[in-house]
Amino acid sequence: MLKKDIVDKVSMELGQQKQDIGLAVDIILETMAEALKEGRRIELRGFGSFSTRERRPRNTKNPRTGVVMEIPERRTLHFTMSKSLKEQLISEKD
């Protein structure tokens, strides 16, 4: 699903212009990105939570050349789905 699909769906549900809904979605995503950059946790009840985690620096070997490379420390995004979303996904399989 693309951002455009979300805008189209919400626009049809609410009967609002796509431009207004598109702006709202952009603002929501920008706000979420800023919060994650600041190291804050985002929790969307009934959906899940987003947070960042620190990865330690490590060494790895290039399988083709055998050269050892150092991967620097970095932050990664972590998503944990809510129990209700997990139950919905499991019940759809059955």
TrEMBL record:
<keyword id="KW-0238">DNA-binding</keyword>
<dbReference type="GO" id="GO:0003677">
    <property type="term" value="F:DNA binding"/>
</dbReference>
<dbReference type="Pfam" id="PF00216">
    <property type="entry name" value="Bac_DNA_binding"/>
</dbReference>
<protein>
    <submittedName>
        <fullName>Integration host factor subunit beta</fullName>
    </submittedName>
</protein>
<keyword id="KW-0226">DNA condensation</keyword>
<comment type="similarity">
    <text>Belongs to the bacterial histone-like protein family.</text>
</comment>
<dbReference type="InterPro" id="IPR000119">
    <property type="entry name" value="Hist_DNA-bd"/>
</dbReference>
<dbReference type="GO" id="GO:0005829">
    <property type="term" value="C:cytosol"/>
</dbReference>
<dbReference type="GO" id="GO:0030527">
    <property type="term" value="F:structural constituent of chromatin"/>
</dbReference>
<dbReference type="GO" id="GO:0030261">
    <property type="term" value="P:chromosome condensation"/>
</dbReference>
<dbReference type="InterPro" id="IPR010992">
    <property type="entry name" value="IHF-like_DNA-bd_dom_sf"/>
</dbReference>
